[in-house]
Amino acid sequence: MQNSHLLQNFIAKSDVSDVLDSALKGQPLGLNECIRLIKSQDSFLIGHVGNILREKMYGNTVTFVNNIILNYTNVCVTYCKFCAFYRPPGHSESYTLTLQDIIRRVIVARESFGITQVLFQGGHNPNLKLEYYETIFKEIKKRTPEVGIHGLSPSEVDMISRIEKISTREVLDRLKVAGLDSLPGAGAEILDDDVKAEISPLKIKSHEWLRIMEEAHNIGLKSSATMMYGTVENEEQLARHIIKIAKLQEKTRGFMAFIPWSFEPNKTQMQSEGLINYSSGGAQLLKMIAIIRIFYFGLIDHLQSSWLTNGVGMAQLALNYGADDFGGTLIGEEVVSATGARSTELSSQKIIEAIKQIGFLVAERDNFYTNIKYY
Fold first, then answer.
1. Residue 236 maps to which CATH number?
2. What is the pLDDT of residue 333?
3. For the chain, N or C: smaller number of CB within 10 Å?
4. pLDDT digit string (tens) for 96-138?
C-alpha cells in the first residue's frame, strides 16, 4: 500500500502524469499521448510503469527461443541506405544459398542446438522465383518438422509477387501450404512514407506493408511487428508507427510480438553521406521499450528486449522496462554483423545466464510463444 502511494506521488510530479495514470488504469491512449511520452524526459518513471504492466502479464518469467537465422541471399535491388548487408546482382561478394546448404544448416542446428525456429530472411533477389521458397519450406518441414519457419517479410513477399506476376495473397497462400508458419516484421522500418522516401525509396510503402500483414493474418499466418528507429524520423512519425500497428492489431489480432531496434549506421550509406553518424543508444531503447509496453498492453502480448542491436547489458535492463522476451540465439546472423558493430550470436546458455543474472526466471519458448521448457 505504501509503495503504491509513493508511486502515485512520483507520477503526480511527472510531465506525463495523466498519461501514466491512464495507462495504469487501463484507459485507452491515442496519438497525442504517445507523442508526449516520446518527448518526455521522464524515462525512469515511464519505464517503471512499463515494468508494472509486464509484471501483471508475466510475473517474474522471461522467455527466449532457440533458433538460427538463415540470411538466404544478400542479393538485393532495393538498395536501402540503412543496410550494410546487401550486394547488387552480379557483385563479387553476392551469394544465394542452395537448398542443400539450407537443409544442412537447419539439420545440424536442430541436432546440435535443439532449435525450434528458423528465421528465414534475405535480400530482394530478382532471380528467385516462388518455387525456390516452396521447395525449401517443404524440405525443412519434411526433414525437421519440429522447427517452425518464421520467414519472409512483407517486402520480400511483395518482391516474389512482382517476379511471378501474381497477387501477394496468392504468394502467401502458397507459402503457407509449403510450410511457412509465421512472418517476421522486417521492412516496416518506420511506417511513414516521408521517412521511407529518405531511407528506403525503392521498398514497399507503408500501406503496402500493412496490407500484406493483414492478408497474412486473414489466412492464419501470425507475425511479429518491428520498428527501426534512430534514422531521420521525428517524434510524431515514431508515434504514428506505433498507432498504425495498434490499429491493425485491433482488427486482426495477428501480431504475436513487437521488436523495436535501433539503427546501426556503421558501414551504411547513411553514415557515408553524413546523415546519421551514431546509433541512438541505450537510453532511447529503454524509453521505447516502456512506451511500447504501455501502448500495446492487452493488445500485443510479447515485447522483445532487442539484444541484437543494443547488446546483452541493455537487453537485461530492457526486461525491467517492459520487455518479456529476450529474442533468439540467432546463430548464423549476417545482417547486423555486416555493420561490424558487435557479435550477433548468443548460445542458449548465455541467454539463460543473462536472464538469471538479474533475478528473472527463464522459460524457453517455441515459434508461437508457447513455453516448452523451464530453467
1. 3.20.20.70
2. 41
3. N
4. 999 999 999 999 999 999 999 999 999 999 999 999 999 999 9
> Does some domain include residue 345?
yes
Picking from 106, 114, 173, the residue whose alpha carbon sits closest to that of residue 142 is: 106
The percentage of the chain sitting over the pLDDT mark of 90, rounded to a whole number, equals 74
The average pLDDT across 187-202 equals 92
- The total of structural domains in the chain comes to 1
Return the C-alpha cell found at 165. Answer: 506476376
Tell me which residue has cell 521488436.
259
Residue with cell 507459402: 175
The grid cell for 367 is 515459434
Which residue range forms the structural domain that includes residue 179?
Answer: 35-374
Is there a domain that residue 40 lies in? Answer: yes
- What distances in angstroms separate CA 259 from CA 151, 219, 345, 349, one per listed residue? 15, 23, 17, 22
Written as nine digits, the cell of 332 is 548464423
Q: Which three cell numbers stand for residue 16?
A: 506525463
The secondary structure element, H or E, covering residue 148 is: strand 148-151
**Are 318 and 280 in contact, with CB atoms under 8 Å apart?**
no
Residue found by looking up cell 543473462 in the block: 354
User: What digits encode the pLDDT tens for the residues 276-297?
Assistant: 766 767 788 999 999 999 999 9
Are the beta carbons of 127 and 75 closer than 8 angstroms?
A: yes
- Termini Cα distance of the chain: 32
Cell of 18: 495523466
- Return the C-alpha cell found at 361: 526466471
Q: How far apart are CA 208 and CA 213, in angstroms?
A: 9
User: Are 142 and 216 a contacting pair, CB within 8 Å?
Assistant: no
- How far, CA to CA in Å, does 32 sit from each of 66, 243, 294, 300? 38, 10, 14, 20
